[in-house]
Input
Amino acid sequence: MLAGMTANVVFGLLRAAVLVAALKAANGEIAEYGIAATNTYVWIGQGLLGFILLWGTNELAERVRSGDVVVDLYRPWHLQSALLAQDLGRGGYAFLSRLAPPVVFGMLLFPFQLPASLMQWPLFLVSAVIALVICFACRFLIDLSAFWLLDNRGLFGFWNVASGLLCGLTVPIAFFPEWARDALWMTPFPALMQAPIDVFLGHGDPVRTLLYQVFWAVALLVAGHLVLQRAVRRVVVQGG
Amino acid sequence: MADVIYPRLIGARLRSQMSYRASFALDLVTQVLAQWIELVVILVLFGHVSALGGFTRDEVLLMYAFAGIAFGIADLFAGQLDNLPTYIRTGTFDVLLMRPLGTLPQIMVSDVRLRRVGRIVGAIAVMVYALTHVGVAWTPAKVALTIVTPLAGAVIFGAIWVVTCSVCFWIVEGREFANAFTYGSNTFTSYPVNVYSAPLRWVMAFIVPGAFVAYYPSLALLGKQDPLGLPGWVGWASPLVAALAAAVAGFAWRFAVRHYRGTGS
Output
């Protein structure tokens, strides 16, 4: 775990340095991001990364490929709900082990922009939890693609490569040119990372941000449920 | 013997990967995109500023391209070291020790993933763009520098991989620790090193010799003064630094392997 934390902190330091260098070249502010807001953005992002588990495992897809998924399917549970419950439990622990350490690290060592009003703290917490649910729903859909593709490693790899940039982990979405910004906010990606950070920093209307997140959480969970129903019909169990 | 075995092992690896054409093509494209993520970041930032650490967009792109090619080549051969924790934990490292070949070269050719060529291709494309847009007073020496820099950089990255992965002999789950320096160095070297704070620079540019992958050679190529005050010849020293790094890596690996204890059967 200490090794993981080293990696997390090193990447945070690198990203903060590059962004702050850009800010200095732009007279201290780009798109509402000053020095303190940028450091806050980086360290909250580094924390959320492990909390929402942006880059998870491909375990369920591997079980689809090997056929072990049959065991998961004939248990008396709704597979999606059961896995979501598992992921929320993981999130509870990750909140302490993955989210808190980089945020505290950033808070102690760098200029940090704390929320202006007390209300932002619980709103951030709600937003982060919804982000976790959306991230789970996305990963679940990618896993389910294995029912059709059998080998979904191409899609899984694509997600791992592109999601960091699209969700606002690598560079704030607000830095993008307007057309790209508008296009990205039409997708669920910013709901994973940029939305909770915006709520914490007080960028934009928090209620609107949360509603946007809730919409995608519901839409993607329903999509996952429907896709699972169709996928199950494709499963052929050899007797035994 | 080794001179016949290694090409054959690599050949077998490559043939096996080419057998699933569609999957391979998708993997290759993903790797090109992976390389271009940082390119997008650079372009987005330069949408707001005209210089980063005193360097223009195309100059930064040149450093990014050098770093990308070097990292791609190193990843091709040394990326397999990321699997070292599995070898150590499951005890399969014993098998490598039994064979009459070096352990390090065996791991390096164990899984040469051809798709990683995608990273190199993506970076070369940016280098061609950057070289045609920055002002370089070309001389034969500078042409040689342009060719040697990515190769020296690859050796430096490879050495970083070997040294940091050697830690896994002590801390078995040390892969993420190693990644902080391998993948971290890729990001670090893609930007001029004077944008980083002094402590970070000391660790990642000089102790881990990241500054010699792209930054100093680029300065020499562009004929620019180092804002950090080192003399101009430093830009030509990368091959020397690479040789030194490789030697350190060799010692570190031998020292680490000696520490290895099998898990028994």
